[in-house]
Design goal:
Length: about 325
């Protein structure tokens, strides 16, 4: 009995984390949501959607910058004539440019529903012309880099197949489908992805039945995959590997109270270790690890208006 009690105590202690700070950093638009975050050239860069409401035709991507996480300024606002820009993500290419992606939700009358676009910038202020990437109606949710190769999972938005596809690119502009990918059952869609020296680790959201998240792992040449049902529903997932090897995730949990949470992703499933001040319509975090401190961008409506927040968490 003592051994069981001690094992439970140690497991609980291993799942703790301390929220050091959280504050609102932007609420200029009527609706501010769906963030991502990267540390690049001595600054934090936070991207998110601005619009009239959660779904509206006027969505644009705001780019914020900060040297210390305290003082923020706007670096750019990226728009598209193609339609509503949704769920932006940002990464850094091997050449040191920032790569911004977002899906354009087309206006009525266009044969396709969505197309993912990419923009590139050397300074985060001036962004080049939009480049269509992936396939129409396969929302390329997130792009990550492993050496000189970009990787991402696209999911069907037409409602016809409800499948996912693995893509790769040598330059972030021309993507090809990777054969051998096995799409999980259910309506699989949003993904957190890690690309680590020939190994992909994917935290994948599912809706409908079943609606529990799946952890997927594979090694080059990516013809075989290990899949694990985590038994927990997650929204807006993102993944980060800590220096000690632990797999840290963030997103919205659906077990009664709406919140943006941080959790360990383990063989036993999801273990929440910290909850950021949040509620209502909330989630879609971005993560950056600096000197043992986890910096988190996210959005929430717990103070009334849908706004962008920035937090500091010390995982233990």
């Amino acid at each position: 009995m003592k051994r069981v009690w001690l094992a439970g105590l140690l497991a609980a202690l291993a799942c703790r984390g301390e929220v050091l700070e959280s504050k609102k950093i932007w609420d200029a638009a009527p609706h501010n949501a769906f963030t991502d975050l990267v540390w690049h050239k001595g600054e934090f860069w936070c991207v998110f959607r601005e619009g009239e409401k959660h779904v509206s035709a006027d969505g644009a991507v705001r780019v914020l910058r900060s040297k210390d996480g305290a003082a923020w300024s706007s670096a750019a606002l990226v728009r598209s004539e193609a339609g509503d820009l949704r769920d932006p993500k940002v990464s850094v290419t091997p050449a040191g440019e920032m790569m911004l992606i977002a899906a354009a939700a087309f206006r009525p009358g266009v044969p396709a529903h969505h197309q993912t676009y990419a923009w590139f910038s050397k300074d985060g202020v001036e962004w080049g012309e939009a480049v269509a990437i992936g396939e129409p109606d396969y929302w390329l949710w997130r792009v990550v880099w492993d050496g000189g190769t970009a990787w991402g999972i696209g999911y069907d938005t037409s409602g016809q197949k409800k499948d996912t596809r693995l893509y790769r690119s040598p330059d972030g502009k021309t993507f090809e489908r990777v054969r051998g990918w096995i799409s999980p059952s259910g309506y699989a869609n949003e993904t957190g992805v890690l690309a680590e020296k020939g190994r992909l680790t994917i935290l994948l959201r599912r809706d409908g039945e079943p609606n529990s998240a799946v952890l997927i792992q594979g090694e080059a040449p990516y013809q075989r995959w290990d899949m694990m049902d985590l038994g927990t529903r997650i929204g807006g997932p993102v993944l980060l590997r800590l220096p000690d090897g632990r797999l840290l995730g963030a997103g919205r949990l659906y077990d009664g109270k709406a919140r943006t949470s941080l959790f360990w992703v383990q063989k036993e499933g999801i273990r929440e270790f910290a909850t950021l001040p949040s509620g209502g319509d909330t989630s879609y975090p971005g993560l950056a690890l600096r000197e043992g401190v986890l910096w988190v961008s996210y959005y929430s409506t717990h103070e009334g208006k849908t706004s962008i927040y920035f937090g500091k968490v010390r995982p233990e």
